[in-house]
Amino acid sequence: MDKIVISIIISTRNREQILWDTVQKACNAIEKKNVEIIVINDGDKVLCVPNFLKGEIKIFDNPKKGVSSARNFGVSQAKGSILFFIDDDMWINNAVIDWINDYIIQKGNTEEVYFINWNYPTYLNEKLRISKVGRYLLAANYHNLWGRMQKKTEQPSSGLYKYDQLGSCSLVMKKDIFNKVGCYNENIIFSGEDSDLANKINKLDIPIYVVFDVTLHHNHLDRIEIHNFLKRIYDGFGSEFIAKKTGIMGPVPNITYNGFKLLVFDFFRNTEKAWIFLHIILPNSSFIQPLQNKLIGGLGGLQRFKQWRKIIKKSQ
User: Fold this and answer.
1) Among candidate residues 165, 191, 223, the one where a domain is terminated
2) Which residue, of 139, 232, 239, 280, has the greatest Cβ tally within 10 A?
3) Number of domains in the chain
4) Per residue in 135-157, pLDDT tens?
5) 83 phi and psi, to 5 degrees?
6) Statement to judge: residues 238 and 194 lie in one domain
């Protein structure tokens, strides 16, 4: 193989089944190209690499723990001048590698940061339509990047869209830019690292673009079960609130739960298991999905309250 030009960096934590599907698709996408795949194990177990992937990828254990340090460690091992960060559930394809080669490397567009468009794969959208949490995600437009960006207009069919935020699930930039902005903040261990990195990039007036010329598939398979769905929200708010409380990432959020509102949320906190049980026993029917949507949305908001009560309220 010629000199490595692109380094794909995948941070993973205790999601082996989902990870190996992702790695297999990445291997198919980079075949006979000057690209390497680096997997950083941020979990607490040794990864058991399938035989068909041995020799195809580089695997390292994260010496510090936390997604930010895992990605930084991956960069320290990378040989390529172009970094391509993806989540362990992001399926890439030949088209995105060709786009990076053609648009960034060959045409010299290396002074910008690129966030690649994604949506859920077809099989997962079909699962969403027959799942209680899945139909909630569809109603919230959570199954594609444009919806996650909370845009109400029609999604661009191609081209670049100027944006001030990014996602490390599908992020491309020159290694020199990454080092210039100061890498990921390793004190942010789970969620909020993307906003922090975007803020540092914006301060240096480096453009961030969402790329709609290619589309990847985000395989959020484990997000359509209620306990996993709520845990992801709970952990995310916990990481962000800690980062803000300690001054790592912006000011402490101006969130208040006073009077009647505080009583209501405390009531739901104390009865959370009952509401989750209600969600489980309610019929899986589109007829009562509006009720399910309110219930799931309320449980999601409760995760924010619990972390506020645990982290923010104590400092007020």
Assistant:
1) 223
2) 239
3) 2
4) 999 999 999 999 999 998 999 99
5) -100, 135
6) no
Classify residue 126: in a domain, yes or no.
yes
* Last residue of one domain, picked from the residues 181, 196, 223: 223
Among residues 283, 239, 97, which one has the least CA distance to residue 172?
97
The amino acid that residue 150 corresponds to is Q
Among 159, 171, 155, 249, CA closest to 206: 171
Alpha-carbon distance of 120 to 217, in angstroms, equals: 5
Residues contacting residue 134 through CB under 8 Å, at least 6 positions apart: 127, 128, 224
Strand, coil or helix: 283 = coil
Alpha helices by DSSP H, listed for 57-164, are: 67-77, 94-99, 122-129, 132-139, 145-148
- Residue given tokens 């045409």 in the structure block: 107
Question: Locate tokens 């941070």: which residue?
Answer: 11
Of 178, 181, 166, 186, the C-alpha closest to 42 is 186
Domain boundaries, position 298: 226-315
Report the alpha-carbon angle 49-54-55, nearest 5: 145
Length of the chain: 316
Per-residue pLDDT tens for 162-201? Answer: 999 999 999 999 999 999 999 999 988 888 899 999 999 9
- Give the β-pairing of 35-41 and 6-12: parallel
- Cα–Cα distances (Å) from 45 to 12, 16, 41, 155, 237, in that order, read 11, 10, 8, 40, 25
Please identify which residue in the block is written with the tokens 């509006």: 290
Q: Per the structure block, which two tokens stand in for 208? A: 């961030």
Question: Does residue 160 form part of some domain?
Answer: yes
Q: Is residue 1 part of a domain?
A: no
